[in-house]
Amino acid sequence: MSNGGGKDVTRRPSAVIGASVVIAGAILAIAAWVLVEMRHDALTRAQEAAINVSLLVDRDTARNLEVYDLSLQAVIEGLEHPGVRELPSDLRRMVLFDRAATAKDMGSLLVLDEAGNVVIDSKSESPRRVNVGDRDYFKVHRDSPNVGLYVSHPFEPRLTGGGTSIALSRRLSHPDGSFAGVVVGTMRLNYFRDLFAGVNLGAGGSMALMLADGTMLMRRPYDAKVVGRSLMGTANYTRFTQAPSGDFFGTAAIDGVQRWYAFRHIGNFPLILDVALATRDIYAEWHRRAWIIGSLVGAVDVVILTLAVLFAQQLKRRLAMEAELRSLARTDGLTKLGNRRTFDEMAQAEWRRAQRSDLPLSLLMIDVDHFKSFNDLYGHSAGDDALAAVAQCIGESIRRPGDSAARYGGEEFAVVLPNTNRGSAVQVAEKIRAAVQALGLTHMASMHQVVTVSIGVACMTERRFAMLRVFVNAADGALYEAKGAGRNRVACESDSAEAHAAAPRTNRTINT
Predict the structure, then answer these.
(1) Where does the pLDDT of residue 364 fall: very low under 50, low under 70, confident under 90, or very high at 90 and above?
(2) More confident residue, 413 or 320
(3) Fewer CB within 10 Å, N- or C-terminus of the chain?
(4) DSSP states of 425-490
């Protein structure tokens, strides 16, 4: 069954093209699926890399801030010890300040009194004269006893020119809990700038560190104008504050670039870190591969469809030639009507249908009168022309679907009229006879002086025929009755014609 079905498909041009379209579509669908998976993998790899970067920066930053905070707490504990304040300044500095204060990008550790004046300085034996009572890291501790560690907004140091810095500070309290001053340590923002610069985030990537209130401390790519800028109210900042960590696609308010963001809050510090990869960078390699794969798949599909169209065209021409050959095998070359083989097939099919459905069926047998004499007088070429003209009259006289005509042999024709009773069949026969006579083809050997035809009609209505041969012989017998009655006329088979028609025609002769 499958072999036969495959063979049938290969003989239908539209099926060949349809199968090729299905194959090309399947290849395209597979390629599309692969590209979608590759795109997903590209995003997954980029996300994993960004998350790993954020973890490393988070841990490095948290560790350094914790160390610095421990230094602040050590100063507070030292100052609470009896007698530390009365020690000589050089010895007191050694007791209070560890080596963390001398690390790169770390500024001064200072002890401030209640008015904001520097009273102990990690960088100088004699405290430098400066008042920082207006700084946020001083005022916040002065106004509230429960702040704990405070990370300040960016500022320019007054004691040194080390660049924009932030301060980490803790409150000093008297034994009764009243405000006694502040211990503060500064950290240059260059620390974060150098830390961010060592990370590869692609051409459009960014990394930012901000305070919990949205104040920008450092951003890569670096822009001094961005430091200290507040992101409060922006869409990205709002999402940063909704969870301790997370990720999302968003557009930066600073430069308008669409990126994928991975963010996290750094330890217990009021800091937020985000690592962002530009969407165009994430998919840059994927776009290149997608273009290559898409081009190759497109080329393959074009080749498949082109070959299918060419094959279908060849197949169509072949089928047309086969159909033409079949038509030629079933068509009389001279008259363009069906040949004897065609008549036998269509007559058999219609006779069986009439037998099953009990519908009427009529048969016309047509013979050109005195055709032998016509050939003798005018030649075989004229005879062929006359037969072709008669065939055209026959063809033009039967127009219903299902009606068919054939050259039965020599100058004889047959017409099969399905679902046609005797009266209608006689009308068709008369139409044919009149049309042939109206041609006016000169025939001096005929008593009518023009080419004419005689037609015999047989009909299966009330009368049924046991076999098709009997039915054909009945129409043939009616034809001989028409000839015997003077030609150029139509005759129907008589009630007694069946016995007469059953006799082989070769046993009866009549002058044609």
Answers:
(1) very high
(2) 413
(3) N
(4) HHHHHHHHHHHHHHH--B-TTSTTSB--EEEEEEEESSS--SSHHHHHHHHHHHHHHHHHTTSSSE
Nearest to 302 by CA among 314, 310, 313, 291: 310
Tell me which DSSP letter residue 176 carries: T
Which H, E and C letters describe 28-45, residue by residue?
HHHHHHHHHHHHHHHHHH
- Residue 475 CA to residue 408 CA, distance in Å, equals 13
| Cis peptide upstream of residue 401 (ω within 30 degrees of 0) | no
Task: Please give the Cα distance from 363 to 476 (Å, whole number).
Answer: 9
Closest CA to 92 of 57, 117, 119, 56: 119
Residues whose CB is less than 8 angstroms from the CB of residue 99 and which lie 6 or more positions away in sequence, other chains included: none
Rounded distance between C-alpha atoms, residue 298 and residue 159, angstroms? 68
The alpha carbon dihedral of 482, 483, 484, 488 has a sign of: positive
Report how far residue 321's alpha carbon sits from residue 324's, in angstroms, rounded to the nearest whole number: 5
d(CA 401, CA 405): 12
Q: Are 415 and 436 in contact (CB under 8 A)?
A: no
Q: Which helix (H) or strand (E) holds 3?
A: helix 2-9
Q: Residue 220 belongs to what H/E stretch?
A: strand 216-220
Q: Which ranges of 414-467 does DSSP label H, i.e. alpha helix?
A: 422-439
Query: Which strands, in side-by-side order, build the sheet including 106-112?
Result: 118-121, 106-112, 179-188, 165-173, 150-151
Q: Let me know: does 48 contact 256? Beta carbons within 8 Å.
A: no
Q: What domains sit in the chain, N to C, each tagged with a CATH number?
A: 81-188 (3.30.450.20), 331-507 (3.30.70.270)
Decide if 195 contacts 61 (C-beta within 8 A): yes
- Chain-centre distance for alpha carbon 261: 30
Q: How far apart are CA 4 and CA 283, in angstroms?
A: 49
* Rounded distance between C-alpha atoms, residue 217 and residue 270, angstroms: 12
- In whole angstroms, what is the distance from residue 207 CA to residue 196 CA? 7
CA distances from 155 to 186, 192, 295, 389 (A): 10, 15, 56, 113
The pTM for the full model equals 0.60
56 vs 61: CA distance, rounded Å: 9
Tens digit of pLDDT for each residue in 187-201? 889 889 988 988 888
What are the tens digits of pLDDT across the range 43-100? 999 999 999 999 999 999 999 899 888 888 888 888 877 776 666 666 666 667 765 5
Helix (H, G, I), strand (E, B) or coil at 162: coil
Return the structure tokens found at 437.
């006579």
454 pLDDT more than 90: yes
Tokens of 414: 């047959």
Enumerate the active-site residues. 411
The length of the chain is 512
For the sheet with 245-251, list strands across it: 216-220, 206-211, 271-278, 258-265, 245-251
How much is the CA Rg of the chain, to the nearest whole Å? 55
Q: Which of 141, 169, 173, 171 is nearest to 155 (CA)?
A: 169
pLDDT in tens, 332-362: 888 889 899 889 999 999 998 888 888 899 9
